[in-house]
Design goal:
The protein has helices at about 20-35, 50-55, 75-85, 95-105, 135-140, 150-165, 180-185, 225-245, 260, 280-285, 305-310, 340-350, 355-370, 375-390, and strands at about 5-10, 40-45, 65-70, 110-115, 130, 170-175, 190-195, 215-220, 250-255, 270-275, 290-295, 315, 335. By secondary structure, it is of the alpha/beta class. The chain has 2 domains: about 5-195 and about 370-390, Glycogen Phosphorylase B (Rossmann fold, 3-Layer(aba) Sandwich), CATH 3.40.50; about 200-370, Rossmann fold (3-Layer(aba) Sandwich).
């Protein structure tokens, strides 16, 4: 493909083991530059300590990565700006000024990673590609906070998402499920589905002889995100008692950001371990017999499912859990919707090491074929070609 001048805006620094979005950003920036595109990349950074890590991974002059900490907010002006443009608080005045100077020159594509970045591209809609990873208006549609402020915040997020979907023309959706929802808001939108890419080579597949011999069920993911917390609660309340009865030696581990505070009522359950804010989740994947991730509701691709596939951890989940992944029940994952089906699949997998090994090997292969850097960035380049032709 002809070299393009691309301006890439991200809401986190690109890191192979950062948060869910950062893992894709790492793949995207690295692959675009390797393919000869001229990329100026901007990242708003919620954690100052991650700035140095990103600079080490993307040194100048090979990469032009510009990192800006979230600004300090206070006072009436900040509150008014939040009301005028909700969730634009991540972008500092310095980032916006630098970006504006780049946009004043010639460029081919303004690639906006995440809907909230849309605030930065309103004056360049024809050249903007907006990535939609998930939709809060799906994720939180069944959630009613007890306070007026909580309900107001959710409504504000949903309304802002809908506004930004209406404001742009070109979108990349991470799963087919999001497309009809977006088209209801913006019937003229051009939406292409491209799965989330991760650098599978960064994940060392756990060989059969190093797999845990203890039947441990895990939920790994941020417990401050409603879908992951709902998966943990469903396991502990609805699934675990029957699984424990049928596999008495089984145990549960829940790992994730804010896990102990979010799941305080379950901390003293027998044979249940809850860990929060761990620096590295790999040891917990290594101790996992089966990942049981069954969220009540949650749109978009689930990065912890992709990671389980990459490490070689067998997965029991729902159609929500494998959204955007071409996984088949009994082949790449064990998939069921109801509690009885999830319990049956979890028990069967815990008791059958050969089935575990077949399933996890197939899942890793699927991930490499469909969610690796090459297929995903190939698809992104195809969107760029289409947009350049139409301009």
């Amino acid at each position: 493909m002809t070299s393009l001048r691309i301006i890439l805006v991200m809401i986190e620094p690109p890191l192979p083991f950062g948060n869910a979005a950062a893992r894709w950003y790492y793949v995207l920036l690295k692959e675009l530059v390797a393919r000869g595109h001229r990329v100026v990349a901007y990242a708003a950074c919620s954690k100052p300590e991650e700035i140095a890590k990103a600079r080490d991974l993307f040194p100048t002059p090979e990469y032009d990565l510009r990192l800006y900490p979230f600004p300090t907010r206070s006072g009436l002006v900040s509150k008014l700006e939040t009301l005028r443009r909700p969730y634009s608080y991540m972008f500092s005045p310095e980032l916006k000024a630098d970006l504006a100077s780049q946009l004043a020159a010639e460029f081919d594509i303004l690639h906006l990673e995440q809907l909230w970045c849309g605030w930065l591209g309103l004056n360049h809609r024809a050249k903007s590609l907006v990535n939609v990873h998930h939709l809060i208006w799906i994720d939180l549609s069944d959630l009613t906070p007890p306070t007026f402020l909580g309900r107001f915040r959710i409504r504000k997020m949903m309304n802002t998402e809908r506004k930004l979907v209406r404001d742009f023309q070109h979108f990349r959706s991470c799963s087919p499920r999001l497309v009809p929802e977006m088209l209801r808001e913006n019937p003229s939108a051009k939406i292409t589905t491209v799965p989330v890419g991760i650098d599978v080579a960064q994940y060392s597949y756990i060989p059969d002889n190093l797999r845990t011999s203890v039947p441990i069920l895990s939920v790994i993911g941020s417990m401050t995100w409603h879908p992951s917390r709902s998966a943990a609660v469903r396991l502990l309340r609805q699934l675990w008692p029957e699984i424990k009865r049928r596999v008495p030696e089984a145990r549960v581990q829940i790992v994730g950001w804010g896990a102990r505070s979010s799941l305080a009522e379950f901390i003293d359950m027998p044979d249940v371990t809850i860990e929060e804010n761990v620096p590295d989740t790999r040891p917990y994947f290594e101790r996992t017999g089966v990942m049981l991730y069954a969220p009540a509701r949650g749109s978009g691709m689930k990065i912890k499912i992709l990671e389980a596939f990459a490490y070689g951890v067998p997965v029991v989940t729902t159609s929500e859990g494998i959204e955007g992944i071409l996984a088949l029940d009994g082949v790449h994952a064990s998939v069921a919707e109801d509690d009885g089906g999830l319990i049956e699949r979890a028990v069967n997998l815990l008791k059958n090491v050969e089935q575990q090994n077949r399933q996890r090997a197939a899942a890793r292969q699927l991930l490499e074929q469909h969610c690796g850097p090459k297929p995903t960035v190939d698809a992104i380049e195809a969107i760029y070609r289409t947009m350049s032709t139409r301009q």
